[in-house]
Specification:
The complex is a heterodimer. By secondary structure, chain A is of the alpha/beta class. Chain A is built from five helices and six strands, in the order H-E-H-E-H-E-H-E-E-E-H. Helix content of chain B is 29%, strand content 43%. The chains are: A alpha/beta, B alpha+beta.
Chain lengths: 284, 136
Amino acid sequence: MASMRDIKRRRSSIQSTQQITKAMKLVSTVKLQKAKNRAEETNPYFNAMYKTVSSMLKRSGTIAHPFLKPTGSDKKAVVVITSNRGLAGGYNSNVVKLVTESGFKKEDVVIYAIGSKGREALERRGYQVASDDSDVIEAPVYEDAAEVCGKVLTAYKNEEIGEIYLAYTHFKNTVSHEPTLMKLLPVELSGGGDEADSNILMNYEPNDEEALDMIIPKYITSLFYGALVEAVASENGARMQAMDSATSNAEEMISDLSLKYNRARQGSITQELTEIIAGASAIS
Amino acid sequence: MAENEKMFPVKIITPDRVFYTGEAEMIEFNSTSGQLGVYKNHIPLTTVLAPGAVIVHEAGGEKIAAVHAGFAEVLPDAVTLLAEIAEWPDEIDVSRAEAAKKRAEDRLQAKAADVDLARAEFALRKALTRIDVKAM
């Protein structure tokens, strides 16, 4: 059995760890609240943008536009959104796993990292990292999203890459976050939608190609921005959960150690008593 | 009811918030190919927004806002503006806009090689729009 002093030392060390996890939980709860509100405010734009662009593309029929057809390149750009800090449970590794288990060939993938945890993990696994905008995730604003978007789209236009994917954590609600891998370009339309809608012939100003040229980057940027905001909310949600379970685990360990400590204390008292009694009876 | 038949829903949405929703008789805005005024039953049109004032003619009066970039989707029975930046006049800081205007003008004047002219021009137009909207 461990000595009383050892048990005591271990218990106090767990106690101070518990204090830290508790504080971290509180901090991430507050941050989550803020991030959640932002994610909710962004949603209408994101949804309206998606609706507009998909109905637009349906109506426009067969416009030959570089963004709508595959380029010659086999390379796949993956924008990976993770956090800069750890201690968030499986949050970062889930996103990384999404990329490593996506079935893409390692040499075909070019990583555009947002969040240093994801960048480090993917670099270690031998992926090629083209750019790193990790400071963006601290406080995402629309301009940041536009900047990253510009970088990826330039590479796409130069035919350095043929497909653009986005790996991020979708924020469903406070307790449920879903790592998601989304294909951005070339645009693929999911779902049939209502057919009646698509009969209206859409006019574009200045003309089809120029309008799409300006709208598609905005569409991609809005997806990026939406993903960034959701990722921040998910990160804090994940950290809150992780810290909550860490705190309760610490609680459990402390009560276990307290029990052991009391037993050891009682044991040593009993032992001392027995020794004293034995000594006394030996004298008499 | 005759009055109401002319009305159509207008939405202005930015990445940060739903900027405006309401019913309007007409909406005016700047597109890259010129100023547009849209009544109900307009032909379907998608156009790119240029920095400028957006005037929403509601039943009770007009509402003015500064909108800087984005695009508009016009359908016969609804108009949606997806703007990157939109501001009401009371949210505009004129002194900041004046400063930005001056900065952009200086940059355009200098014509140095390392200055992004398109960007400076866009900044200038943004500043001018802000000042104009505030003055309306």
